[in-house]
Amino acid sequence: MVPAPETGKIVLIANPTAKSGRGAAAADEAARLLWSKVGEERVEVLYTARALHATELAREVGPEVGCVIALGGDGLVNEVANGLMERAADDRPALAVIPVGSGNDYAATLGMAYQVPAAVHEILRFNTARADVGRVNGRYFVETLSFGIDAAIALGTVELRKKSGRAGTALYLESAVDQLFHHLDTYRFTLDILRAPEGLPPRRITAEAYLLAAQIGPTYGGHFRITPEASIDDGLLDLCWATPKLAPLRALAILLRARAGKHVGSDHIHFAQAARVQIDFDREPPAQVDGEKIEGTRFLVECIPDALTVVLGK
Ligand SMILES: [Mg+2]
C-alpha cells in the first residue's frame, strides 16, 4: 500500500525543456515552494532527460512516495501516468499536475491553476479523487485519443511550434485552417462497441468521418471541448465523430463552436459511450494520444475504471 499523499514523500518529475525551456525555471520555483512548505526531506525532484524517461521514473519511485507531481505538458503527464499504471493497482501514488506546456488539457480537466505558486498551493491541499485511465493498444492515456482531422491539426500544431518557436491558440487555428482548406480528408471506420454502458447491448457503427475521438476527459487540442459531457470517473469512454459533407468554412465554424462545447447540436456530430471498443480504419489516419502521435489502422480501446488517484485543483 502506498502512503497517503498528505503523509508520504512527494516526487516532482519535471520536464526542463517544456514550453521552450521554461520548464527548468518552473521546476526550480515549484521545488523551492514545496521544500519551504513540507520540508526538504519530504520532496525529491527528478528531471527528465529523454523521451519516455518520465515513465521509467514514475514506475520506479519507492514505497515511501504518496504523490507524484508531473511538471510539464500533456505529453509528460501521459508518460508519468503510464509509469504509474505499470505498477500494481494498490501501489500507485497519487498523480498531480503542474501545467507547464503548450497543451495542458489534463491540467484543465483536474481544475489546476496555471501559475506555479497557485498550483503548488492547490496540490498541497491534497483534495483527491479517483480517475479512470484509457488504454489503446496497450498504451495508457488520461485525457484524449483521436483520429483524423483533429489529430492532423494537433500534430500540425506541434510541427508549427517547432518550426516557429511560437505557442498558443493561434498556432492551433493556423494548423486547423491548413487542414480544413487543403485536406479535409475523411476516413472510413468500423467501430465495434464490445462493452456498452450497463443495460445496453454491444453494437457496430460504420461511418465515414472527418474525425473520431475516444475521450476520458472532455477536451483535446488545447481546451477544445470535443466531448463536453465526458466524466473522468464514470468508467466509460466518450466517443465523438463528425460526418460529411461539410464545406471548409462550415467545418471551421463547427470547430470554433467546439471550443466552447457548442458543436453538439450539429447533424454532422455524433456521440456514443462505451467501456471497450475496437476501431478498424480502411487506411491509416493521423492519430494522437494525449497529444503524441501514434500509428496503425486497428485500435483496441478501453476504459480502465478507478485506476488512479488524482489531485484536483479548485
Ligand atoms: Mg468517462
Offer a quick outline of the entry.
With 314 residues, the protein is α+β, with helices and mostly antiparallel strands.
Note down, in words, how this protein is organized.
- Helix 6 crosses helix 7 and helix 7 runs antiparallel to helix 8 (about 250-260).
- This protein folds into two domains: about 10-125, Rossmann fold (3-Layer(aba) Sandwich); about 145-305, Tumour Suppressor Smad4, CATH 2.60.200.40.
- The protein has helices at about 20-40, 55-60, 75-85, 105-110, 115-125, 150-165, 170-180, 250-260; strands at about 10-15, 45, 65-70, 95-100, 130-135, 140, 145-150, 185-195, 205-210, 210-215, 235-240, 270-275, 275-280, 285-290, 290-295, 300-310.
- The model has no long low-confidence stretch (mean pLDDT about 95).
- The chain is an alpha+beta fold and about 325 residues long.
- The strands form three sheets. A six-stranded antiparallel beta sheet has the order 6-5-16-13-8-9, covered by helices on one side.
- About 30% of the residues lie in helices and about 30% in strands.
- The protein is built from eight helices and 16 strands.
- Magnesium ion (MG) binds next to loops.
- Magnesium ion (MG) binds near residues 132 and 231.
